[in-house]
Amino acid sequence: MRSDEADALGALAADGIGGAVARAQELHRAIAGRVFGGLGPSAAPVRAAHDAIAGAVYSGVRVGGGVGSRLAGQAVAATRPDDGPSVTDHPRALLAVGALNGILGDRLVARGSALALPMRARLAGQDIGLGAVDLADAYPDATGRVVVLLHGLCETDASWSLGTAQPDGLPPLPTYAERLRDDLGLTPVVLRYNTGRRISDNGRDLDELLDTLIANWPCEVRELVLIGHSMGGLVIRSACHRAHGSGRAWRGLVTHVVMLGTPHLGAPLEQTVNQATRLMRRVPEALPVAAVLNVRSAGIRDLRFGAITEEDWNGHEPDHFDDPCGDVPLLEDVRHCTISATLAQRHDGPLGRLLGDLLVYHSSATGAGRRRRIAFTMEDTVHVGGLSHFALLNHPRVYAQLRDWLAAVPPVPA
């Protein structure tokens, strides 16, 4: 753990203690209000004394806990090198940091936290520079066919390895990136990014990253494939929208955009949480829970209706109920492919419609809404039954479809 990361963890712990104490105080205040309200005006002096004492106690705990956590973080930071290994170098810690970025990523960026994950190309668990020399060193066998993979909410580049571990010390199963390299000669570039930021902001960063990547690639790029899981598909569509008509070199190289379980029309879980928080605000005792739920990041809120442009969210209330998202056309001369999953074998049966893949409905993943429809073709819209949302990250049936789509373009020489 680097020193800046230790300091950031201390600050985060202090904020967490402060938030927990504030929620406890709100619950205490709501319950006390019910009790004293039932006793009538005669209880006013007792209530005033109670509120003063309780307020002092909560303030003391909040300040003491916050200061203690910050001091602890600073003490640990003093023992850590500035250029030492990152906490994200450990697989389990990386999992936690990825989830943290998904939930609080916009706040981490706002405070300049060392725990905020910037968008980076990754290889073998390490960041890769995008300079010409860096890319040549990282990809000595680079081909003219490049595939870029983006993960989804609360995930990281390591999420593509989900389900690859084998028992008895056997080597792990290959990932999509490895299979596409070995089977079709595509050179994989796996990205990691902060999923708690606005999707449109990540789309802007992806647009710029792809421009630099193509300009400095070790050989001439003749084909660019973009694959996104869940939120990653929305980030890709946002970047494509930005690049449309911009003259970006990478735009003209895109042949396929593949989206796996992407909530093009919104995610039901975020919609449900948004509705629940509004209802809970009407009950004083539920206000602390509503406050905790409202902490969720801008990236999560963007998933409510699949907001991929600034116009989709700018000027709207954070907890709006009406879908403000406009129609964003697909890129011309690009094959857009989408895979949806449902826990049930059939997406149009009762369980398929009720559960979807646990996080995304078939209609949203295929852009088949009542108000908005995305023009995916029937041959490029595939449903896989009996799978969950995260199974799409690594599954033989999904890879078989990926290979069929991407093998349609003959490989070009490196």
From TrEMBL:
- Membrane-crossing ranges are none
List the coiled-coil residues: none
Record's Pfam families?
Answer: PGAP1 (PF07819)
Which positions fall inside the GPI inositol-deacylase PGAP1-like alpha/beta domain? 219-286
Q: What GO terms are given for molecular function?
A: hydrolase activity, acting on ester bonds
Protein name (Swiss-Prot/TrEMBL) = GPI inositol-deacylase PGAP1-like alpha/beta domain-containing protein
Which organism is the protein's source?
Paraconexibacter sp. AEG42_29
